[in-house]
TrEMBL record:
InterPro entries: His_Pase_superF_clade-1 (IPR013078), His_PPase_superfam (IPR029033). Gene3D superfamilies: Phosphoglycerate mutase-like (3.40.50.1240). Coiled coil: none annotated. It holds the Pfam family His_Phos_1. This is Phosphohistidine phosphatase. It comes from Sandaracinomonas limnophila.
Length: 157
């Protein structure tokens, strides 16, 4: 079984700084704390955390893991999750071996990936979580368009 927990970074502050360096706003910190509670009670397995190197994504992941350290097997921070298009996201996932992956990244790519893999129109707002699951697959190389089921979509409060 494969589990992909897609997390869009929470709201960031204004575009005063370069986009990559934007920090979470107060609203974003609250969104991330709410998302952390969802993860806490969702009964997910520990897994690999793939996190965009952008500051707001780092901060979102840090807040999520503060109360969910039991979900962390390993963490990879990488600028490719900031720069890549949605179609490349799937290619990058195929390189991983851990059967549970948490991906903290950006729109439009993260919404594209959720929609493409589930064949559902999914738009992820900041702080949203989408849990995709493949009950009969064991390798990320096996995932294809419309092959995932949506276990849940947390929209925030």
């Amino acid at each position: 079984m494969l589990d992909l927990i897609l997390i869009r970074h929470a709201h960031a502050g204004p575009h005063i700084e370069p986009d990559f360096d934007r920090k979470l706003s107060s609203r974003g910190e609250i969104e991330a704390q709410q998302a952390a509670q969802v993860l806490k009670y969702s009964n997910h397995n520990p897994g690999l955390w793939l996190v965009s190197s952008a500051i707001r994504s780092h901060q979102t992941a840090d807040i999520l893991l503060e109360s969910n350290s039991n979900l962390l097997l390993d963490r990879k921070n990488d600028p490719k999750w900031y720069e890549a298009s949605g179609s490349l996201y799937q290619n990058y996932l195929e390189l991983e071996s851990c059967t549970t992956i948490y991906l903290v990244a950006h729109n439009p790519s993260i919404s594209y990936l959720a929609s493409y893999l589930s064949n559902t129109n999914i738009f992820m707002e900041p702080g949203n979580i989408v849990h995709l699951q493949w009950n009969k697959l064991d390798s990320w190389k096996e995932i294809t368009k419309a092959s995932a089921s949506v276990n849940y979509h947390f929209y925030g409060k």
